[in-house]
Specification:
7-stranded mixed sheet; elongated
Length: 261
């Protein structure tokens, strides 16, 4: 086996029940294409190779990619791509199979970056089952008014519905990480059209809304360049003037965006 490389954030899943539960959470993938992010030593790859019509596993580690190619050499439905997922041309890898399912044990240090890439290419995916640090998983599914709710929560919930499936302790991995890990399922269904907002402008607006957590939304918007008079004149009824972004639903934020636009 190749040496563990801490810089890549490699904590390999060794819990047999967990790897089957993750594969099962994707649903029936017979006749379908699945993209796997960071297959590592192939714990989940091995299961999905027997289920999916086509499995594309994207692995950054050169030695692990070589091992996986050897292990799955006789499987015509498995493709091992040695690449950084953040730099990979995922549209080309998916090809005409979109939308496809995606699965992965995400490296802790780039989890948010990977999620943002998935959201940015949302038309390619129908479902994702992803393992990540428990605290990040809690932010994805957080509700307004909770400590975890923030920009990542709203961004995720604008792109689909998030379900928390289960949490694993450090002992499920080798080497064991210092944190707990949670598995979430995202059913992709973008809400931009439903809420009457255009994606690029609304996402820019959200970044301004959540820029400073302790400031009211009105103050954050003024800091982002929205004129004080516009905020005062167009603020929608039913939304408290002193509200912070962290207290507002996706629907309320969309109403404010449309009123100020």
């Amino acid at each position: 086996m190749g040496k563990h490389k801490p810089k890549l954030g490699q904590n390999f899943l060794i819990d047999d029940g967990a790897r089957h539960a993750i594969a099962d959470a994707l649903g029936d993938v017979h006749g379908r294409t699945v993209i796997e992010i960071g297959p590592g030593r192939g714990a989940i790859t091995e299961i999905l190779a027997g289920r999916a019509r086509r499995l594309v596993a994207i692995e950054l580690d050169e030695s692990l990619a070589a091992q996986l190619r050897t292990e799955f050499a006789g499987r015509g439905n498995v493709e091992i791509v040695e690449s950084d997922f953040l730099e990979a041309d995922v549209a080309a890898l998916v090809g005409g199979d979109a939308p496809v399912s995606v699965v992965g044990n995400l490296p802790y240090y780039i989890t948010s970056d990977i999620l943002l890439k998935l959201f940015a290419s949302v038309a390619l995916w129908d479902r994702a089952v992803l393992m990540m640090q428990r605290e990040v998983a809690e932010r994805l599914s957080a509700r307004p008014g909770t400590r975890e709710y923030g920009l990542l929560s709203v961004t995720a919930q604008m792109h689909g519905s998030v379900s928390s499936l289960f949490t694993l302790g450090p002992g499920a991995f080798q080497p064991p990480p210092e944190v707990h890990s949670s598995v979430v399922r995202v059913e992709f269904a973008p809400r931009f059209a439903e809420l009457g907002v255009e994606r690029e402008g609304f996402e820019r607006f959200l970044r301004g809304c959540f820029a400073q957590k302790r400031k009211t939304l009105a103050n954050n918007l003024r800091a982002a360049g929205v004129e004080r008079d516009a905020v005062a004149a167009r603020w929608p009824e039913g939304v408290a003037r002193e509200a912070r972004a962290e207290a507002l639903t996706v629907e309320e934020l969309a109403e404010i965006y449309k009123a100020l636009r």
